[in-house]
Design brief:
CATH class: Alpha Beta
Number of domains: 1
Distance between the termini: 8 Å
CATH superfamily: Barstar-like
Shape: globular
CATH architecture: 2-Layer Sandwich
Largest sheet: 4 strands, parallel
Low-confidence stretches: 9-14
Number of strands: 4
Strand order of the largest sheet: 1-4-3-2
Number of helices: 7
C-alpha cells in the first residue's frame, strides 16, 4: 500500500479552490497535509455542509486509544465494538450523522505512526477504503492528517 499523497489534488496553481476540491468525491481519500492549512480545510468543509470531525491523537499509545478517540469524535453508536471491523462498519454507515460529505482532520498522528506503523497502516487502509466506498455513492469522504512542515518533508514514499 502506498502512503497518502502529501497534498490533496496537487495542482500547479498557487491558489487552490478548497471548496471545489473538497466537493469532488473522486478526489477524496486520505492525505497528509500541511498543518497550516487545517483551519482553511475545516472552514471549507463547514461551508459545504460537511460533517467535520477533528480527532486529536496526541499521546495516543495504541489501537484502543485511537479507536476510542475516533468513536467519540465521529459520534459512533453504542454498539461500536472497538475493533477494526467495527470501525469499517461504522465508517461505511454514518446514518446517525447525515451530511453532504465528511471531513476528518486527524491531528498529531506522527508519534503513533512512528511508534506502531502496522496499526497506523491498518487504520489508513480502512479510512482509504471508506473514502472509496463513499465516492461510489457520490459523496466526498476526506481524511486529512495535518503535519508540521518538517514532518511533512520527512515523509518517505514506501
Amino acid at each position: 500500500m502506498s502512503p497518502p499523497s502529501p497534498r490533496p489534488g496537487q495542482q500547479t496553481a498557487a491558489v487552490v479552490d478548497l471548496g471545489a476540491l473538497l466537493a469532488d468525491p473522486a478526489q477524496a481519500s486520505a492525505y497528509y497535509v500541511d498543518a497550516r492549512d487545517t483551519e482553511a480545510m475545516a472552514a471549507a468543509g463547514a461551508t459545504l455542509e460537511f460533517a467535520v470531525a477533528r480527532i486529536d491523537l496526541a499521546g495516543c499509545t495504541d489501537k484502543a486509544v485511537a479507536l476510542d478517540r475516533l468513536a467519540r469524535a465521529l459520534r459512533f453508536p453504542a454498539w461500536f465494538g472497538g475493533n477494526w471491523d467495527a470501525l469499517a462498519d461504522c465508517l461505511g454507515d454514518l446514518g446517525w450523522w447525515p451530511a453532504e460529505g465528511y471531513l476528518l482532520l486527524i491531528e498529531h498522528v506522527w508519534q503513533w505512526r512512528a511508534q506502531d506503523r502496522a496499526e497506523f497502516d491498518t487504520l489508513l487502509a480502512i479510512l482509504t477504503e471508506a473514502a472509496m466506498e463513499w465516492a461510489g455513492r457520490g459523496k466526498a469522504f476526506w481524511v486529512l492528517f495535518p503535519l508540521p512542515a518538517d514532518q511533512l518533508a520527512a515523509l518517505e514514499p514506501d
